[in-house]
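Quick look at the format.
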Amino acid sequence: MFPNRSAITKTNAILIVGIIIIAAIAAGAGWLYYSKPAPAQTTTLVYETAGDINMLALAQNILGPEFEKRNPNVKVVSVHTGPGDAGDMTIVEKLKAEKDAGKQVWDVDVAMVHQVFMGEYIKNDLILNYSTTLPSWKYVTTPLARNSLGTPCTGYVMPMFNSQVAIAYNPKYVTSVPKTFDDLVTWVKANPGKFGYNGIKGGMSGVGFVDGWVYWKTGKYNLYAITGPYDKGNEQGWDQAFADLKDFNKYVTLTAGNVGTLDMLNRGELWMGPVWVDMFYTSMLDGKMDPSIKLFIPTPGLPGQPMYFVIPKGSGNIELAKKFVDMVMSPDMQGSAIIVKYNWYPGIDGQYVKDYVTPQVYNRLYGDIPPDMLLKLGQAFPLSGYMVDMGSAYEKYVSG
């Protein structure tokens, strides 16, 4: 009369167990699905740099990897446009073309450029005014962060480093170091053939010396390098300045270039000559420069040049670009990368990196030319028009 209880029980038990197993599998699969976080989306930051190939190496080997380490979901792609004016013009033309085309998001997020085209970047509204908002701005004291070859640039740039021309001398033979250009002329005439430079060919250390000579002779550094404007009428008196330089050159040795001057100093053939500070210390670390040789800058000074971080207005990652620049401008990165790896003067005031490098490294870079002296005697190269004219005047009055 009644159904077989054992049969019903067995059937129900099988069904229940099956349901439980299916539910467990489904629940497990769901648990696995919901507990596994979706992979974070990677953001690409495009960094474009002009300059020599070492600028690309710096980006690929140090700056990019360090930023990716600190920001795991970011990939830094570094692009090199090449040295000289052509490398900078490539960046200017690219940004202008994207702006003129009405492109909403431009290809480059942050760029490294020279001074020469800063007027073009700002006039054409291609770059962001951003740098004074960064935490690292408080470390920047150089006037070159506020004026770029006559173009006011406060806020538009951050100087990653500064290359400086200085006079190297051998203390074995130079017992009384010249303090001024007047002292330098007196020493050179008393020691003919022992001061050497490359004129205006073969490297910018010689060009820097010539420009510094003109600044000294005319007293018009601010006009030629800072305020402008460019006007050939402001070049009165150059014939005498270059006539004096021609007379000076009778007592000097003309070298083959930047490296030629360094080599002759190392061999003791020269006792004094203008050099790029970073090239000088790199040669010393590579065992190619007599470690006893020292540096000085004569009053009223010698020129140097920075390279600038700029952020294109059309960057799709403006906040990330700011973060990248701020990282590189921090005292620890300025010390470990800019000073230790490349022997450049940092873009920030040297006093702020002292705690981030060893005393040996700090004294190597600042022992002869401390930060306050560099700030006082480090000059800018002239506005491009004056720079071209100084080269032409050298050819006319000195080489001719």
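Next, a different chain entirely:
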Amino acid sequence: MIWRPDRGPHAAPEAGQSPWYIPRVDDDIRQAVLSREEVARYLRGVPGLSPDEARERISGYLEEFRTTQRYSVYRNLKHPLYPIFRKIERVPEHIDIVRAATGSQRVIYASNHRSHIDYLVELLVLDDHGIRPPVIAAGINLFNGAMGLLNRYVTGALPIRRNSRDPAYLATLRAYVAELVQRSDLFLYLEGGRSYSGELKALKTGMLQAVMQARNPDAVIVPVAISYDLVLEDQALIKQGVKRRQRGFSVEVAEMVRLAVGYESRAFVTFGQPILLPDFDPDSRRGLVNLTRRTREAIGKIYKVVPTALISAAMRPSMPRQALIDQIDELLDALRLVGANLDVEHGREAVEQATEPLVLRGVIAVEGERYRVRDRNVLRYYARSLHHLLHDRGTSSFTH
């Protein structure tokens, strides 16, 4: 089957095109964006910007957004990254939810963001199950050099200037996304970038607002949570701390390849029940706030709680193995009360499964029956992945 975003989710195949080929966005999107009131207002001129200057600026932004997705090529990108991907086991959960949603609705995926590997892992999970590919919204730092060419002409990613305060840019972006929702599924990372602390961050509202403004009665938000036993860039994320500037993606890739030595992990990709966009008033600030809150809560609830996070949250500087098991059992009881998505049911299972990976990663050390912390910062990073489930519920003493 060939699917084109401008022809709807059930379009018939066209001769001479590759499977999952999505052409450059047609001029109808450009014209639709220019016709939207929020953009037309700038085209008429605003203080400090003449109509000609406004048109030139907005036209530049629209050209920046133009993209091509050749999914058969994108799928093959995993081969150059085979040294990394062979060490990651993809574990999908509730893929039937997505299959049902894409059968009759326009889907906007809303995911947390742990690693640069997310972009490929999550979309490959969809591809593994024959689900049509969405357009990814990605930071503009991923559009430099060779990687920029791949994102623009192969993966079909939509470049986002996350730190832009230009009203003309923001209006054009929101209008473009609103029109794109009429033609394509979207995949959004609403935290605005990877989590450098390990926590599930607050969600940005700009892209959600644009999606709401599409007023598509068939559009739904599908929450997605990705969770790893070990995040490939964990040590790099800790060192960088609070993100002060965007680095070139080639630098990030080189760092990831270095950190992949000895790396193995599962990647859980869990899909949640669709959230109906028509249930939220697109013209109301309260509607946007409620949708944002509900989306974050849904992502947090389905996030897979893995053994490495349990050990990290329960660990003290030095403690006997049995005390650690008991502490994890107590932690699991608290997590059950909030309906967490658990990978194991007992503390002993967590210790048996996560000890070796954390030791090999240099996070903890084991001397006989005693466990000791070796890298406090990385341990805290994994412990904080449970913060959204525990911190606001009177059990924050479990996390560091």
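The longest helix spans residues 285-302.

See the schema section for token definitions.
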